[in-house]
């Protein structure tokens, strides 16, 4: 009798475990499916119009420039970087982002970048990371990249070239004007990371001055650290 009860208890425990796993799996797939479907939903028109009003013409943000694992900006505050924006609200990828003649420090090339991004709501995981109302996500693929060597290519290692698979993933809060995004140029392992910050339009007026100061600070940093 005891053996029979033990057997029944064991079977019941296994059934409970299998049911628990099944419920967890269903919940997980339901969550993932929900996030995938969420990405297909359109962003509310009023949020798009606010984004269009914020990301207009050009803005200057602080960014980290990377070549592979090497931080070319070196300084913790990053370097001032000017991005250009334009819009076509009738397109499925309404936001156009450009970088023009980008180089920093002793990067051996100048880079031009052009990409079109779509706007989507945040998924459940992203909402946990970016809290509060007003957040939207922008993503772009197949960005065009053109690059040409500059005076820092002292060994003549680079020639003019093109790429066509750059990407952008970013987040914008249309209420607070906070922004964060990464750009992968898909050329020579070059990337830029705009860390979370609030857009300050006054930086457009001081861009040349701020960039010159950054270059001077970078030179001093390299000298101090023997780079």
TrEMBL record:
Residues 1-24 form the signal peptide. Keywords: Signal. It holds the Pfam family DUF4903. The keyword Signal applies. The keyword Signal applies. This is DUF4903 domain-containing protein. The lineage of its organism: Bacteria, Pseudomonadati, Bacteroidota, Bacteroidia, Bacteroidales.
């Amino acid at each position: 009798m005891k053996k029979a009860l033990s057997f029944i208890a064991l079977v019941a425990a296994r059934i409970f475990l299998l049911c628990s796993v099944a419920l967890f799996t269903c919940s997980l797939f339901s969550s993932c499916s929900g996030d995938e479907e969420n990405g297909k939903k359109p962003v509310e028109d009023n949020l798009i119009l606010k984004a269009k009003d914020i990301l207009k013409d050009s803005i200057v943000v602080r960014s980290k420039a990377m070549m592979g694992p090497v931080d070319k900006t070196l300084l913790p505050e990053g370097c001032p970087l000017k991005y250009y924006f334009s819009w076509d609200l009738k397109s499925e990828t309404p936001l156009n982002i450009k970088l023009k003649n980008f180089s920093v420090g002793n990067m051996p090339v100048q880079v031009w970048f052009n990409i079109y991004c779509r706007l989507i709501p945040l998924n459940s995981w992203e909402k946990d990371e970016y809290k509060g109302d007003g957040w939207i996500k922008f993503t772009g693929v197949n960005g065009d990249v053109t690059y040409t060597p500059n005076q820092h290519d002292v060994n003549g290692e680079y020639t003019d070239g093109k790429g066509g698979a750059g990407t952008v993933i970013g987040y914008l809060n249309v209420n607070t004007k906070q922004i964060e995004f990464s750009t992968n140029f898909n050329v020579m392992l070059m990337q830029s990371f705009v860390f979370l910050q609030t857009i300050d339009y006054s930086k457009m007026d001081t861009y040349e001055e701020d960039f010159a100061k950054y270059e001077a600070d970078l030179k001093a940093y390299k000298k101090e650290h023997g780079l």
